[in-house]
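Re: the request from the purification team.
They wanted to know what the chain is likely to look like in 3D before they choose a buffer screen. I agreed to run a prediction and write the result into the notebook, where they can find it.
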Amino acid sequence: MSKYDVAIIGSGPGGYVAAIRCAQLGMKTAIIEKYSTLGGTCLNVGCIPSKALLDSSHHYEDAVKHFEEHGIDIPGEIKVNLKQMIARKQAVVDQTTGGIDFLMKKNKIDVYVGVGSFKDATHITITGEETTEIEAKNTIIATGSKPSTLPFIKLDKERVITSTEALKLKEIPKHLIVIGGGVIGLELGQVYKRLGAEVSVIEYMDRILPTMDSGISKELNKVLKKQKFKINISHKVTSVERNGDEVVVKAENKKGEEVSFTGDYVLVSVGRHAYTDGLNLEAAGVKLTERGKVEVNEHLQTSASNIYAIGDVIKGAMLAHKSEEEGTFVAETLAGQKPHIDYNLIPGVVYTWPEVASVGKTEEQLKESGVDYKVGQFPMRALGRSRASMDLDGFVKILADKSTDEILGVHMVGARAADMIAEAVVAMEYRASAEDVSRMSHAHPTFTEAMKEAALAANDRALHI
């Protein structure tokens, strides 16, 4: 029987990063993955493939709608080759997952393909093509999450689909109904809207992106409506019925009236839930919370002292980069180091266009906590770089403490917001004030000038509005 200092169950961003860091710190490491490719949801059916399709569809939309204005004339009709678009997406996935294979070999990490199940707290049975048992001094559970649904919805994975199926459709929907106005629904909705589908979003809460700052929700709602999305907020879905190639969704609006939506595809994107199937946690003495997540303490240690858990399977935002930080955190904890994670400073991003990004507290959270704050906001359309690229929608908003000027939250909608948010994270990690950021030189012309101007605006000093 092979013995390891640490075994990781699950090879997503949290799992494979934990494995690499453990190996770097001198631990004999194994990683267990039930699928034939490494990388988990993110690399195989999540972040990477969805961004590949978002980029491809963005190029198509630019060619159809904007090239002529840029002085680029293309003779003949511009057509979508969905088969090639999906094939390119898969090539990106294959290259990325192949990169994880290389990293495992480089760091001398043993890879086991099969379902990992606890025999007890130190022994794991791996059931694949053949059954293997290993012994691990410590184990990290990194099994991630799966798409959630509603109790009355039957996912046939043909017409009533999750994000996984939406990444490999063989045709462009005529009318895609998206249940859920969160990150996944809006991103995949935009992919198919660009390619010609009619898209209707049905959201239970009173705004899209309900967990983000309300100013962001309002701005993106305005932009998406301009892009001809049909957004229905405060709607409670009551039934989903498929009849051949047609799917009918019924819902109650905020007045309690029944409304009906008919389309050819329904994307169910109502969140994700922790995935612990097959782990046999009871045998290892690992407890779950009431919500089905693995219970951990501040060291990400489970109720079994030598077993840790990270990523989507525990509390907190379901984000690949959160999982990575937690994987590194546990590896360094096992090595006797004193790592830290500031969960308040883990950014959230929505890869629609314009992009959405956020870090720190929202206005709603500051109001609820009774914090006296001030707001600095700057519109993207006031930037020379935005006019040059025709990306005029959105803004950067900085929330700062009214008395100390310390930045408490940054929220943005705009071109390249996903990249721009890193400046806000750095500033807040070092507890910068709005004035600190406003006194930094920002290259001109860039989108990041909006960050400087918003910081100036927090102290009533904006220069370009």
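For the purification team: The mean pLDDT is 98.
Please add any questions underneath this entry.
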